[in-house]
Write a structure and sequence with these properties.
The protein is α/β, with parallel strands linked by helices. The protein is built from four helices and six strands.
Length: 153
C-alpha cells in the first residue's frame, strides 16, 4: 500500500484551516498552548489516506505557520480511533478534559465523528470533520461546534 499524497495534501490544507480556527480561539487556550488533536484511523482501512500521514501533515502545517497561532505555540497530537465510536469518544473526552486539546481534526469515520460531535457540543469545543460523510452531521446532529469540511452522503 502506497501513500495517498493527494489525501495528505488535503489534510495539510485542512490543518492550515485548523490553525486559522485555532488563531481565532487562541484566547481559550487556557494553558497558553494551542493543541490540535488529529483523531483518525492509523492502523486499518483508512490508514493510508489519513492515519499517521495526516498527523505529520498537520505538524508540517503548524511549522509552516511558524509554530504558533495568535502568538501562542501550537502542538499537534494524534491518536488512532480504531474505527470505533467508543474508542474515539474516550480519546476525545481525555483530550478535552485532561490533555487540554483545543480542537479535534480529521475524524474520517462517520460513526466516530458523530460520537465526538456530541462530546464537542457538551464541552463547547470545536471539531473539524474531513472525511466522515454522514448527512446527520449537517442534519439532525448539526452543531455550532462542528465544521464539516468535505463531502456528505
Amino acid at each position: 500500500m502506497g501513500h495517498n499524497h493527494l489525501g495528505h495534501a488535503a489534510i495539510w490544507r485542512f490543518a492550515a484551516g485548523a490553525l486559522t480556527l485555532a488563531s481565532v480561539t487562541a484566547a481559550d487556550a487556557g494553558d497558553g498552548i494551542v493543541r490540535i488533536g488529529v483523531l483518525n484511523d492509523q492502523s486499518s482501512v483508512f490508514a493510508d489516506s489519513t492515519g499517521p500521514g495526516s498527523v505529520l501533515s498537520a505538524r508540517m502545517a503548524a511549522e509552516d505557520f511558524g509554530g504558533n497561532a495568535a502568538g501562542l505555540p501550537v502542538e499537534v497530537v494524534g491518536a488512532d480511533h480504531l474505527n470505533k465510536p467508543d474508542v474515539g469518544a474516550e480519546i476525545a473526552r481525555r483530550w478535552f478534559d485532561l490533555d487540554k486539546v483545543d480542537v479535534i481534526a480529521d475524524l474520517g469515520n462517520s460513526a466516530v465523528a458523530l460520537a465526538v460531535n456530541e462530546i464537542a457540543r457538551e464541552k463547547n469545543k470545536a471539531i473539524l470533520v474531513s472525511a466522515g460523510g454522514t448527512t446527520t452531521l449537517t442534519g439532525k446532529s448539526c452543531s455550532p461546534n462542528t465544521v464539516h469540511w468535505t463531502y456528505d452522503t
